[in-house]
């Protein structure tokens, strides 16, 4: 087993392409915001919240998702959104993460009558990220070219499922307005509103919204139903990622690629499992799985791997050593290491990398590839030549750090 020191993993340049803004708040910030905005929580201390809500292990997905009601309530406030965005970027910079693509469902934060519109929510996040980016990029060592620049892109999520109550003021009103439509028509209509809005906001306000995503309950809500939403993004030069194969099998990943034009896959956990294929028309499941693995690998469709989160929401895995990332590595797939939720999963990018290298065979050349995918397969906002130069600079920096730590 290759061993890397904590110091090397900390110093190594990193990215995070799969992190939810509403799952990655600092606990003291959440407590402060809850007090300020009168949000009812089961505890107002860090210890209490760690014991009752944001744990290191969870019994099931429901328990994992429980804390989001508090974070989303705190984020229905423009000042709070800006602060959370700023702090998230700073926390990443402090562990040498030079690129992030934070994602969130704007409609979960929206309350149009209270001034929380798609535009104001996006502007508030933009202000927070932009401030952190400028601060970093104005540092003397960054200006001198001895440390990489920090960049970010925003991913806007549609929710696979919401109901008339308990999701957000926006969703409740949306549901009521469409009372003569069926449930699936309502959720896909909201998703379509989202993608049209973010394309317009990106183009008119120059806010780096780089991709859409589909989040929430996977079972019962196949991504193929959101084809029109993804086609709209596709035809407007917007990148695409989909949560797929997290709670549902390989067919979900197949749909993400063929119906939603996915450039990347969130989790992709069940790609390798024959017994999760349920379509009766697929007679040779082994062949289907092998063809799909080869297709995904060859197209370099990148898998956003979130180790801790998978262990927490999927008790079946039991031990990190059983995680399917071993098959992803063995098949030389394009994969990146991500946190999913820094607060809810109680993790950092460094911790996720440490989990990977401590439990799987990852020689330095392969580790360098994984790090490089995080920059090359990012949805960097800007032109391709700039992206290429920046990614190249980051990888030159990687070599310097690796040499300094004696691993290259
Ligand atoms: Zn996620």
Summarize the structure in short.
With 408 residues, the chain is α/β, with parallel strands linked by helices.
How would you explain this protein's 3D organization?
With 408 residues, this protein is an alpha/beta fold. The protein has one domain (6-404): Metal-dependent hydrolases (TIM Barrel, Alpha-Beta Barrel). It is built from 19 helices and 9 strands. It has helices at 6-11, 27-36, 46-52, 61-65, 68-74, 78-93, 106-109, 118-137, 140-143, 169-177, 183-205, 227-234, 250-258, 285-299, 307-313, 325-330, 349-359, 364-376, 384-404; strands at residues 14-20, 97-104, 151-152, 154-159, 209-215, 239-244, 264-267, 302-305, 335-337. Strands 1, 2, 3, 4, 5, 6, 7, 8 and 9 form a 9-stranded parallel sheet that branches. Helix 14 links the parallel strand 7 and strand 8 (302-305). The radius of gyration is 20 Å and the shape is globular. It binds zinc ion. Zinc ion binds next to strand 1.
Q: List bound small molecules.
A: zinc ion
Largest sheet, strands/sense/barrel: 9 strands, parallel
**Shape descriptor:** globular
Which whole number gives the mean pLDDT?
96
Unreliable parts: none
| Relevant CATH superfamily | Metal-dependent hydrolases
Total number of beta strands: 9
Helix and strand topology:
Blueprint: H1 6-11, E1 14-20, H2 27-36, H3 46-52, H4 61-65, H5 68-74, H6 78-93, E2 97-104, H7 106-109, H8 118-137, H9 140-143, E3 151-152, E4 154-159, H10 169-177, H11 183-205, E5 209-215, H12 227-234, E6 239-244, H13 250-258, E7 264-267, H14 285-299, E8 302-305, H15 307-313, H16 325-330, E9 335-337, H17 349-359, H18 364-376, H19 384-404
Parallel strand pairs: 1-2, 2-3, 2-4, 4-5, 5-6, 6-7, 7-8, 8-9
Helix pairs in contact: 6-8, 11-12, 18-19
The chain binds zinc ion.
